Structures are given as structure tokens and as C-alpha cells.
Amino acid sequence: MALMVDDQLMTEVDPHLRHALLQYCEFYQLDPENVVEEAVSDFLYHHNQTVASLVHGYAEMASLNSEICQECAGCEAKID
């Protein structure tokens, strides 16, 4: 669950995940906020790449579907 408070993102995470993050950051001497920010940024980048790929695929399929419809239109006209 995420909340916006005064233009800052406040999150609640699973206690086990929070504990693991804090241990990781302590071991590698990292700021947890930087780790979370980088993780979210990476997630959004990959998610956006996936969406762009899907849009491209749908555009290609639309062209193919249009060709198939044009090929079958003559058959449908003969039935009427």
C-alpha cells in the first residue's frame, strides 16, 4: 500500500521485506531510500519497456488482421 503525503511517497511494506532491506543496507553501508528509489526506477523502466513491446505487437497484429479481413471480404460478399 502506498500513500502520498505532502508530495512524498510513504510506503508500508511487509515486515520481512523491510528487515531484509535494512540488513542489506547495513551490510553494504547503503542508504535504504536510495536502494528503494533505484529499485522502483528500475521496475518502472522495465514495466514501460514491456508495455511498449505490447503496443508494438498489437500494432503489427492490427495490420495483419486488416490484410486477413481484406482477403476474406470477397468470400463473404459471395455468400450474401
Could you characterize what this model shows?
- By secondary structure, the protein is mainly alpha-helical.
- The chain is built from two helices and two strands; from the N terminus they run ββαα.
- Strands 1-2 form a two-stranded antiparallel ribbon.
- A hairpin with a 2-residue loop joins strand 1 (2-5) and strand 2 (8-11).
- The mean pLDDT is 83.
Order of helices and strands: EEHH
Count of helical segments?
2
Describe the strand arrangement of the main beta sheet, using strand numbers.
1-2
Q: Based on Cα principal axes, name the global outline.
A: rod-shaped
Q: State the share of residues found in helices, binned by percent.
A: over 70%
Structural class: mainly alpha
Mean pLDDT: 83
Radius of gyration: 24 Å
Assembly type:
single chain
Question: What proportion of the residues form beta strands (DSSP E)?
Answer: 5-15%
Overall strand count: 2
- Return residue spans where pLDDT drops below 50 for at least 5 consecutive residues: none
Largest sheet: 2 strands, antiparallel
Summary keywords:
80 residues; mainly alpha; two-stranded antiparallel sheet
Please outline what is shown here.
The chain has helices at 15-28, 32-79; strands at residues 2-5, 8-11. It is mainly α and 80 residues long.
